[in-house]
């Protein structure tokens, strides 16, 4: 049984509606093995959290870098909200410890998978927003991204190679590349 009070203490949060917190950690694999579970998967919260995260980061960058053009702001935002960054932030908060996973997902290292960690981070942001409002969600997000934002200010941003290739190609007046999935392996 998961101790959601312990989770809240770890996060420095206090939820009025604990089911929102718990819902942020429900992986779809858990529901496959527990079909009578009262909560849905975290996918809807993830959807909401992704939108809120993008908005809050865009707002922060707009204020923080008043002279940067839109393209540069977009590139910085992309580096702050990408899967790798979100997974790193979720890992530092130990969010994987509270994930509700099915046995197969658990056995395949689901608690440390970057996609699961990034997804639970977004779902948690959505849950914070619904439970405590935009101001608390903003405070949480800005606290989490602060170290990454400081790296960017210091010129240590990881390049977005896909964007760089597209920029290079567009600069040569060539058509934008079309991307095709060649292969996908492993569990969903």
SSE inventory with pairings:
Blueprint: H1 4-11, H2 18-23, H3 28-33, H4 43-64, H5 70-81, H6 83-92, H7 103-107, H8 114-132, H9 134-153, H10 161-171
Helix pairs in contact: 4-5, 4-8, 4-9, 6-8, 8-9
Question: What does this 3D model show about the protein?
Answer:
Helix 4 (43-64) crosses helix 5, helix 6 crosses helix 8 (114-132) and helix 8 crosses helix 9. The protein has helices at 4-11, 18-23, 28-33, 43-64, 70-81, 83-92, 103-107, 114-132, 134-153, 161-171. The radius of gyration is 18 Å and the shape is globular. With 188 residues, it is an all-alpha fold. The model has no long low-confidence stretch (mean pLDDT 90). 63% of the residues lie in helices and 0% in strands. It has ten helices and no strands. The two termini are 26 Å apart. The longest helix has 22 residues, at 43-64.
Q: N-to-C terminal Cα separation, in Å?
A: 26 Å
Give the SSE order as H and E letters.
HHHHHHHHHH
Beta fraction: under 5%
CA radius of gyration: 18 Å
**In total, how many beta strands?**
0
Structural class from helices and strands? mainly alpha
Main beta-sheet annotation: none
């Amino acid at each position: 049984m998961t101790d959601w009070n312990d989770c809240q203490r770890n996060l420095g949060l206090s939820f009025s509606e604990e089911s929102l917190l718990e819902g942020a950690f429900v992986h779809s694999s858990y529901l496959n093995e527990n079909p009578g579970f009262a909560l849905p998967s975290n996918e809807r919260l993830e959807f909401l959290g992704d939108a809120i995260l993008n908005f809050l980061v865009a707002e922060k960058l707009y204020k923080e870098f008043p002279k940067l053009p839109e393209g540069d702001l977009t590139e910085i935002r992309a580096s702050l909200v990408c899967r790798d960054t979100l997974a790193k932030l979720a890992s530092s908060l130990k969010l994987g410890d509270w994930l509700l996973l099915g046995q197969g997902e658990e056995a395949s290292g689901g608690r440390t998978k970057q996609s699961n960690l990034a997804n639970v981070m977004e779902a948690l942001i959505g849950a914070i927003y619904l439970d405590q409002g935009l101001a608390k969600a903003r405070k949480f997000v800005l606290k989490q991204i602060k170290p990454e934002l400081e790296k960017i200010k210091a010129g240590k941003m990881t390049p977005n190679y896909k964007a760089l290739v597209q920029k290079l190609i567009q600069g040569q007046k060539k058509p934008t590349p079309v991307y095709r999935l060649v292969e996908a392996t492993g569990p969903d």
